[in-house]
Specification:
The structure is a homodimer.
Chain A (H helix, E strand, L loop, with lengths): L1 E8 L12 E7 L2 E5 L1 E3 L12 H6 L5 E3 L1 H6 L3 H6 L3 H5 L5 E3 L3 H6 L4 E3 L4 E4 L6 E4 L1 H11 L3 E3 L8 E2 L2 E2 L2 H24 L5 E6 L5 H13 L4 E4 L8 H10 L10 E3 L5 H9 L4 E3 L2 H7 L2 E4 L2 E4 L19 H5 L2 H9 L4 H26 L3 H14 L2
Parallel strand pairs in A: 4-16, 5-6, 6-10, 10-13, 13-14, 14-15, 15-16
Antiparallel strand pairs in A: 1-2, 2-3, 7-8, 8-9, 11-12, 17-18
Helix pairs in contact in A: 6-7, 7-8, 10-14, 11-14, 13-14, 14-15
């Protein structure tokens, strides 16, 4: 089940040219999601260092799981026994699972791609495994995720020492299209009650992106993603694709930009017409002492914070900012104490989710253009 | 400030011989503590992997901090600026700090003990440091802990390949007594508004323990601890000292058994007349997948838990048991996910605190003897 309703768009007004931004409501089998939204990443059935109840408190509406990882550990027997990922991990709101395509791609030399699928050695125990479009659908059906991603080949930006050529990108893109069709068939055969998203590929070539999206749209899937970004390309290349593809996808269906990005990227992505985002950046950066705030990023390991009694962001309402100082968090980081990444992960995720709430409020109030200006000015100010 | 009130004792009844157990109420500068109580250990200003709010929820009333560690990191400048440890770590109920004696003792060959104090190289940056009774009092005054421990020399059970002789234990014990007096003087000179506890030493020799406690009692300190246990001695030796010392201390003052122990040790300790316990066991064991339950200990890494849908302990009311299965916790441990130790630490600490609540309820109801029998039978049953 998937139902997507556009509530508002961002029209031109006076000298403001408007944008492709949309405010929407997405209904899925495990609940409702207000868009645009950021989705915290829970690779192994846990958003690293964050309890489900903290996710609820910070306003998370949908989280990610990784098909590839969960297939290897805990494995399908366990997940089947629990009736899927929701009960296993104690998260009863919507979940999106990726297809495993990006992860097998990341294995590099350890995997072999053919028309049938991807053969690779399990990084956990060395077993030889085959992941195909059909297997990916079967796994995701066991996971019972609300949004299922098609199995695709992630086209690299660069490989074997050269930037991927148009011909190479086309070969890869057309393979992903054939896999999309196989996913669609298998998803239907399995009677999966959730929603299957197609993934637009085509590397950094707009004409290939256009071809990919047209053929996927012809399959009439309930939602679409833009894949093959955040794969090592320069920022401008990502921005070029982000400006090209989202608004060309069907307006009445949700759009998901995979693996992006910084707070600035998210706001630009919304303006480009994206509804759903995911990225490991808030949690990974939190663990490295890189914190996001309204007035720019804060590097917690800087010794200037050793005696700083202020919270990370005085304008933030998260649990961490309500109770703990920069000095304390600096100390925890320095001592390698687990509470450090626990508290900074809460803050960074809260920042991303609150930013998306602000975006939704601005769209509801018809002042998205003004919001973007203020957001950029604030972020550029510096902590 | 310290006020200790004995509410109940555990009298003989029929064939039951009674015990030295006492139910008490301890009033300290940052609040009230119901005894007997277990105190979670927060070495570096954090109970490892546990948020203060989780500590509140599980009924923690007083936690520990380590003088030695906090002196090195974050250092006194930071702690002074925050007005002490409470505000720095966001814990506003009572705190007990140890004196640093046990930690410098643990440095082994890296330290040198003299009448004046202990010279050692900082394990953080190699600086040569001197910790004396006076310095320990000065640090703990900055920390503003509710209970301040005297600086003592922890007499080892064994050193240089032989069990500590009575002569060696006497030399060490009398040094600790002289240090106790210096602590008392410095504590008074500093005008510290909290409560200083003396520490009974004497190794495994009851006559020395007796001498130590008599001289400490003559100093009329507001509370006393039994130190120099959990230092590598066989269990029976610890039990012999635990049976000897606590009930010989003044009945109207709180008694603290340092660094002990298993759930069984705690219940025995209460019967021996102890009011306060601390131990890293619940948190350290949690991180190693060793979980405590009403019906014995559970080794989470055992593959039998891979598909086990039950909570760690079906009779437990902690956040972890209310929301997560053994299978999920087994999975988190296997994947090295931070959420694993976060959730198991909550469970183990909750187990210890709930056990002490049961002990207090039993003492209030005059059925401590029956409680101990049931407790032992339950624990021996096995998970």
């Amino acid at each position: 089940m998937l139902n997507f309703e556009r509530l508002h768009t961002d029209p031109a007004q006076g000298s403001y040219l408007g944008s492709h931004a949309r405010r929407g409501r997405l209904r899925l089998n495990h609940g409702e999601v207000q868009t645009p939204i950021f989705m915290p990443v829970g690779t192994y059935g846990t958003v690293k260092g964050v309890m489900p109840r903290s996710l609820h408190e910070m306003g998370a509406q949908i989280i990610l799981g990784n098909t590839f990882h969960l297939w290897l550990r805990p494995g399908l027997d366990v997940l089947r026994q629990f009736g899927g990922l929701h009960r296993f991990e104690g998260w009863h709101k919507p979940i999106l699972t990726d297809s495993g395509g990006f992860q097998v791609w990341s294995l590099g030399a350890m995997r072999k791609i053919s028309e049938q699928g991807v053969t690779f050695a399990s990084p956990v125990n060395g077993d030889k495994l085959l992941l195909t479009p059909e297997v990916s659908m079967q796994i995701q059906t066991v996971l019972n995720s609300d949004i299922v991603m098609q199995f695709d080949e992630c086209t690299p930006y660069e490989s074997a020492g050269h930037i991927t050529t148009e011909d190479e990108a086309r070969v890869s893109m057309t393979l992903s299209l054939r896999w999309a069709e196989r996913c669609r068939m298998e998803f239907a055969r399995l009677g999966n009650p959730n929603a299957l998203f197609g993934i637009v590929q085509g590397g950094m070539y707009e004409n290939l992106r256009q071809e990919s999206l047209e053929q996927l749209v012809a399959m009439d899937l309930p939602g679409y993603a833009i894949g093959g970004v955040s794969v090592g390309e320069p920022k401008e290349e990502m921005q070029r694709i982000m400006a090209h593809t989202p608004h060309r996808l069907p307006a009445h269906k949700p759009r998901y930009l995979m693996g992006v990005g910084t707070p600035e990227d998210l706001v630009e992505g919304v303006a480009a017409g994206v509804d759903l985002f995911d990225c490991v950046m808030p949690t990974r950066n939190a663990r490295n002492g890189h914190l996001f705030t309204r007035f720019g990023d804060l590097r917690l390991r800087n010794t200037r914070y050793k005696t700083d009694e202020a919270p990370i962001d005085p304008s933030c309402t998260c649990h961490t900012c309500a109770h703990f100082s920069r000095a304390y968090l600096h100390h925890l980081d320095r001592c390698g104490e687990m509470l450090g990444p626990m508290l900074t992960s809460i803050h960074n995720l809260h920042y991303y989710l609150a930013l998306m709430q602000d975006v939704r409020d601005a769209l509801d109030a018809g002042r998205f253009g003004a919001f973007v200006q203020q957001f950029k000015a604030d972020r550029a100010r510096g902590v």
